[in-house]
Specification:
heterodimer, A: alpha/beta, six-stranded mixed beta sheet, 22 strands, 33% helix, B: mainly alpha
Chain lengths: 505, 316
């Protein structure tokens, strides 16, 4: 069978960090080729290179026999590449027919729109796909699944031969997933090639002809799907030696600092979450992106108030705002330091004093010298690479920005510290320095919640590990018993659900 | 910082204009003319200080003209009914504070976008006032109403002192007070400000209420210059104010604006109008030239921003 897509030795790095290293990938006519790996393994980067959103640093990309040098989204589309994402990207205020017609018509704009033909074409297309959907409905009024189907119709309508599907079932129900699978199999029969990305191994088993495993930006394996077992796949995805030594030291664990008992937050998809964390203890939150870890952190911190049965030092409290959480000695280092962390235009000292301005002010008047002194002392102790305390945060590197963000919370002398992906996008040197800081906090008796998608970090830093799946904690492992495969099995729901056709967690 | 560059740019433009005037129309610099010029632009200046804070938080208020009109009429009505002038002034400021607080509550707590909320209050307040006054001007004001019962010279000094005090204390407050820092943080990054415990809703509410007070004060100081109060004052005032803040280098997206820039913006746009008359240019050109200045100022910003955006490569 003809090869639709061939990527050879693709390299891509962002700011010196390798996202893809010598990755090769091939897609044949009439096959579903699954692409799997942990968060950050490079799946999205590879799809973005194929769809022309990103340019590879080196390597060769051939699409339908055309050597692609300067790929752009337009060019990739003209070669028959279409992508479908977790979240459909339709124009909500336009009809189904218009959404399907747009990619076709924008290529050759016409003065007059032939509405009759547009609707007729859309209806024909949907009929051919075996879908009963009124093309006159507004895309915004459709369910997630229906929108996903319109996305596929869009792709088929534009004669796509190469379909990249990135977690297309994440927001669908079981029935809808079956319907989607039917369409995917039909496409395969018609000779299209499908790149299928999913965290759900049961879907991979049900659909894939071949499987490529990515880990840390490298191709680990490319195998026929027949006869492969899930445990083997998980092993392939995570099986690596610890990339660095973690400075974790044993800290005598003291009294319970935080107790959460049956927390639910329907709006954020959290349910029945219970855990405790003691002073000096580092409790890890592992799980897939979107499994509810960040949502839980935000709930505890008062950012998305819910009925949260929380006890601090044994006393029940109600936290309804971050200001209140901070007064109670809780700190929260958010995941996205650019969006939610630093005020990039402001100086380092101003960013550090942000969460406890009262400490550097008198009668509402900020004591500039005191503020600068505090900034400079943290710059020295955390070894932030910056010329002085008034340097704007936006000029710092990722690692230094993260140190400043952390210093802000050190400055409030927290009792409980929630760290959400504290070393994401941080260079190796700063990373181990941040790990050291976390350990030092624990030694001072701070109770720490560490959210991380990096399993070695979780295993290397934490005393206990709570694994999240679908909005709740599905298991807690002690430092001694935790291994990467055990955590992954819990996170993927492999441990308690037997494999079955298109089963869903 | 680019805002520094903007301040210098506006400053140089003002100097150039002054030189041109000194050359062609030295009569511009008589005390009488400068006093008139100052008094005519004082309301814009005082309200622009409040507007700078609002724009700093990333919001906008287009209802200040209507609030100004209501406060002026309230001041006149109170005085004509026999209230002491000082009490009337206080009532006018309180009314301004209340109206600003209504705006603030609609925006911060009901979460209506500020442009829509203040558009609604702008229209509603203006027409409500028309219905209340039936278009009639407030007359029969007591003798001590004009100039607060002072001489004209003393009054001008008082106004000048008040304006300088307001601008200076706001500029210092933004820099040195905790609440000032909260305003800057809210405008720069609302989500991040929330996480460090800043009650961003309260900040937004506060700047609207404060601008209401300042608008009331501007109305008080303006209305006592005349012996009657028109019921339609402040028409188009919001545009003058916002234009001055924009020329002063404020980013309409919030987080970046300075009182110095705003003051210079008010001076530049304020001087242009009468300068044209003195230079013998048809006064009909005034608005066109002001529009041109606003466009140039904002275009320079946007071009700079583009250049920066292209130099920046995201790390995702």
């Amino acid at each position: 069978m003809a090869i639709l897509l061939n990527a050879v030795s693709i390299e891509k790095s962002f700011a010196g960090v390798h996202a893809l290293r010598d990755v090769s990938f091939e897609l044949k006519e009439g096959e579903v080729h699954a692409l799997i790996g942990e968060n950050g393994a490079g799946k999205s980067t590879l799809t973005r290179i194929i769809t022309g959103i990103l340019r590879p640093d080196s390597g060769r990309l051939t699409i339908q026999g055309n050597d692609v040098h300067d790929n752009t989204p337009q060019y990739a589309r003209s070669l028959g590449v279409a992508a479908i994402y977790q979240q459909p990207v339709l124009f909500p205020h336009l009809t189904v027919a218009e959404n399907i017609a747009l990619p076709l018509e924008s290529a050759k704009p016409r003065w007059r729109i032939d509405w009759k033909r547009r609707y007729a074409d859309a209806r024909d297309l949907l009929l051919r796909m075996g879908i009963s959907l009124d093309p006159r409905r507004l895309a915004g009024s459709l369910s997630m699944a229906e929108q996903q189907i319109v996305e596929i119709a869009k792709a088929i309508g534009s004669h796509a031969r190469i379909l990249l599907m990135d977690e297309p079932t994440a927001l669908l129900t079981d029935r809808e997933v079956d319907n989607l699978f039917r369409l995917v199999r039909q496409l395969r029969q018609d000779g299209a090639g499908i790149v299928y990305i999913s965290h759900r191994l049961e879907e991979i088993e049900a659909l894939a002809d071949r499987i490529t495993v990515l880990r840390d930006g490298s191709t680990i394996a490319c195998k026929e799907a027949r006869g492969i077992d899930r445990a083997g796949l998980i092993e392939l995805m995570v099986g690596r030696s610890l990339a660095s030594i973690y400075p974790k030291r044993e800290v005598p664990v003291r009294e319970t600092a935080l107790e959460v008992d049956n927390l639910s937050n329907a709006a954020l998809g959290l349910h029945d979450i219970s855990f405790t964390v003691k002073r000096g203890e580092i409790l890890g939150f592992a799980g897939l992106v979107g499994s509810g870890r960040t949502e839980l952190a935000r709930t505890i911190f008062g950012l998305s108030p819910a009925h949260s049965p929380i006890k601090l030092d044994g006393k029940p409290v109600r936290i309804t705002s971050p200001a209140q959480a901070i007064r109670m000695g809780i700190g929260y280092l958010p995941e996205d330091r650019r969006q939610h962390g630093l005020i990039l235009e402001m100086g380092i000292a101003e960013n550090i004093s942000m969460a406890n301005l009262q400490a550097v002010s008198r009668w509402g008047l900020i004591q500039r010298t005191q503020e600068t002194d505090q900034g400079e002392s943290y710059i020295r102790s955390l070894r932030v690479k910056a010329s002085n305390a008034s340097t704007a945060a936006k000029t710092l590197s990722g690692g230094n920005q993260q140190k400043v963000a952390l210093a802000r919370w050190l400055a409030i002398h927290p009792q409980i510290m929630i760290l959400d992906e504290p070393t994401q996008g941080v260079d190796v040197g700063s990373k181990s320095e941040i790990h050291e800081l976390i350990v030092q906090m624990a030694e001072r008796g701070v109770a720490i919640l560490l959210i991380s998608s990096e399993l070695p970090e979780i295993l290397g830093m934490c005393d206990r590990i709570a694994v999240f799946r679908a909005g709740t904690i599905v298991g807690t492992l002690s430092r001694a018993e935790a291994t990467q495969p055990k955590i992954m099995a819990l996170a993927f729901g492999h441990a308690d659900t037997p494999p079955q056709e298109s089963a869903r967690a | 910082m680019s805002s520094r560059a903007r301040e210098i740019g506006v400053c140089l433009t003002i100097v150039a204009l002054m030189l041109l005037l000194a050359w062609h129309a030295p009569g511009y610099f008589t005390l009488a003319n400068l006093t008139d010029l100052f008094l005519a632009n004082m309301p814009v200046m005082i309200i622009a200080v409040g507007m700078t804070m609002i724009i700093l938080t990333g919001e906008i208020d287009i209802s200040v003209g209507s609030i100004f009109a209501i406060c002026s009429v309230v001041m006149g009505v109170c005085a004509s009914r026999g209230m002491p002038v000082v009490v009337s002034a206080l009532v006018a400021c309180i009314v301004g504070a209340l109206l600003g607080a209504i705006n603030g509550a609609l925006i911060a707590y009901v979460r209506i976008p500020s442009i829509v909320a203040t558009l609604a209050t702008m229209v509603a307040l203006r027409d409500g006032l028309r219905w209340w006054t039936q278009g009639a001007w407030i007359q029969g004001l007591p003798r001590q109403f004009q100039w607060f019962g002072q001489s004209q010279g003393a009054f001008t000094t008082l106004c000048l002192a008040a304006t300088v005090l307001i601008a200076l204390s706001t500029a210092l407050g933004l820099r040195h007070l905790r609440v000032g820092r909260s305003i800057l943080a809210t405008g720069s990054n609302k989500a991040a400000a929330n996480i460090v415990g800043i009650e961003t809703n309260r900040v937004v509410f506060g700047v609207f209420a404060a601008t209401g007070v300042l608008t009331g004060l501007a109305a008080v100081l303006n209305s006592v210059r005349f012996n009657q109060v028109p019921s339609n004052s402040g028409l188009g005032l919001e545009l003058k104010v916002i234009a001055a803040v924009a020329v002063g280098g404020a980013a309409i997206t919030g987080g970046s604006a300075t009182i110095t820039g705003t003051v210079l913006g008010v001076v530049l746009l304020g001087c242009i109008g009468s300068a044209l008359t003195f230079l013998g240019i048809n006064a009909y050109w005034e608005k066109a030239i002001q529009g041109g200045i606003i466009l140039i100022a904002v275009a320079v910003d946007t071009l700079n921003l583009h250049r920066r955006d292209h130099a920046y490569t995201p790390s995702t």
